[in-house]
Amino acid sequence: MASNPPGSCCVVGVKHEGAPTGSDVKIGKIDAYLAQPEQSKANGAAVLYVADVFGIWQNSKLVADQFAANGYLCVIPDLFNGDQLALDALEKGFDVMKWIAQGSNGSNPHTPEAVDKIVVETLNWLKSEKGITKIAAAGYCFGAKQVARHVKDGINVGFFAHPSFVTEDELKAFNVPLSIAAAETDTIFPAELRHKSEVILKEKGDPYQINLYSAVEHGFAVRAELSSKQARFAKEAAFAQAVTWFNTWL
User: Which domain holds residue 206?
Assistant: First the structure.
C-alpha cells in the first residue's frame, strides 16, 4: 500500500465557522455542491473535490468556496448517496471499514467500486455540461483513492491531502502532476509509506511534490483545530499548495 485503509483518525475533527456561498445542484441523480467563481476571476478550469467520509458538509463547502475565490469552478459530488458521516453522530470505536463495506443500513456500500460511477459521471458533467477542458482533482483522505483511480477519465493534475487507501499500483499509474500534503502524525500515511510513495513518484518521472506539515494529524487539511496556530497554518498552507500546483500545471 502507498497509504493504509481509513481508521479512527479519519472520523474526528472540528467543524469550522463561516457561511458557504455555493449552491446545491444535481448531476443526474447525484446531489452535489457547486461553488462558482466570479466571472471576472474565472480561469476556465475546474476542481473536482473528492471528499473524505464526511462528504458535503460545512468544512468541505468552505474549502470549495475558497477554490472558487481563486478562479476555479469547484464541485463536490455526494459520494455516499446521502449516507456521509457526521462528526456529532459518531460513537467511540466506530467501525469505518464496516461502514465503507456496507453503509449505515447494511445495503448502501461505499467501496471504491460503488463510488467509481459517481466520480465518472461528475467528470463527464464537468466536460459536457460545463464545457470544462482543464480539470484538477483534490482528494482528501478517502477521496484520494478516487482521484488516483480516475486520472484516466480526464483529470489533468492532482492533489492529495493525507491520503488513505491508495495502492502502490494506483500511485504508479498516476500519470499527471501530483502534489501531496502530509501530516507529521498519521497512522494512515505514516513516514515509511510516505517515503515509499516518494520513491514511486521519483521513479515514475511525472512532476510531484510532497509537503510535510509538523504538529498536525491526519485530516488537518479539512478538519483542523483552527485555534491552534500550527494547525491553522498547516491547513491554509496545504490549500495554497493545492492552488499553486493547479495554477502551475493546468
Answer: 23-249
Q: What is the Cα–Cα distance from 6 to 248, expressed in whole angstroms?
A: 30
Distance CA 148, CA 204 (A): 14
This prediction's pTM:
0.93
Asked whether residue 17 is assigned to any structural domain, the reply reads no
Q: Which three cell numbers stand for residue 114?
A: 460503488
Q: Give me the DSSP letters along 168-234.
A: HHHHHT--S-EEEEEEEE-SSS-HHHHHHHHHHHHHH-S-EEEEEEEEEETTHHHH--TTSHHHHHH
C-alpha cell at 20: 458557504
Query: Which CATH number is 59's domain given?
Result: 3.40.50.1820
Which amino acids are annotated catalytic?
A: 141, 186, 218
Residue pLDDT, tens place only, 106-122: 889 999 999 999 999 99
Domains: count for the chain: 1
> Could you report the per-residue pLDDT of 82-109, keeping only the tens digit for each?
999 988 766 667 888 999 999 998 889 9
11 within domain boundaries: no
Secondary structure of residue 156 in the 3-state scheme: coil
Has residue 6 been placed in a domain? no
